[in-house]
Write a structure and sequence with these properties.
Length: 221
């Protein structure tokens, strides 16, 4: 899924976002490319390439990269340049374990506040992800996936929880987690999204907890 053509398309999609503001918008566009796997773990980031791909100025590129260093998405080596962080297996496992605790723990709050229109919105977002299976870039899939899970967590009524999980997700790219490496893995995520919607519609908290846990941990398989 994340072939060279997809990466090029992802870069062009990200550049449109980056033009809306500097350098924060550029940092956000690059972060999205990293987190989706369009920029691979360990990949060196050439400033001239970023300038050309995003239509950015050198100073803005440098500031954006420094922001990503602060977020621990990028490493800066003096006299050598910047490269995408390459998380080790221990870090990935520990972050997944923390996410399991947080996201399964949010289920009771989700069920307590759930309305029919919330279920309908979750279904719409699941269908949006499904619509991208054959034609979307890795950035498109990543953003649609984040939108679905952001909506789900948002139903808990705890914005701090949602922000914390988003920050944890951002520390490991989907490429490092193996998330978008195989078509079968993407299709499995799609099926699990719809299963979560069914659990929401049935107000089945136990089923939703099982699905959320499996969804987070399946990257280990």
């Amino acid at each position: 899924m994340a072939d060279d053509g997809a990466k090029g398309t992802a870069g062009r999609a990200g550049s449109a976002k980056a033009r809306s503001g500097r350098p924060d918008a550029l940092a956000n566009a690059l972060a999205s490319e990293i987190q989706s796997g369009a920029l691979a773990p360990g990949q060196w980031l050439k400033q001239i390439d970023i300038e050309q791909r995003h239509g950015a100025k050198r100073m803005d590129v440098r500031r954006a990269l420094d922001r990503l260093v602060q977020k621990r998405l990028v490493v800066h080596l003096p006299n050598r340049g910047y490269h995408v962080v390459r998380p080790d297996g221990r870090l990935a496992r520990e972050i997944r374990d923390v996410r399991v605790v947080l996201e399964t723990g949010a289920v009771d709050g989700i069920m307590a506040r759930l309305r029919d229109e919330d279920v309908a919105e979750a279904l719409r977002l699941a269908r949006r992800f499904e619509s991208l299976l054959g034609k979307g870039t890795v950035i498109d899939l990543h953003d649609a996936n984040i939108a679905f899970h952001g909506h789900l967590l948002g139903l808990s009524g705890n914005p701090e929880l949602t922000a914390l999980v988003q920050e944890l997700r951002g520390r490991i790219s989907s490429a490092a987690a193996g998330q978008w490496q195989k078509r079968s893995r993407i299709e499995q995520s799609n099926r699990e999204h719809f299963a979560m919607v069914e659990a929401l519609a049935a107000r089945d908290a136990a089923a939703l907890r099982r699905l959320v846990r499996a969804h987070i941990l399946q990257d280990e398989a």
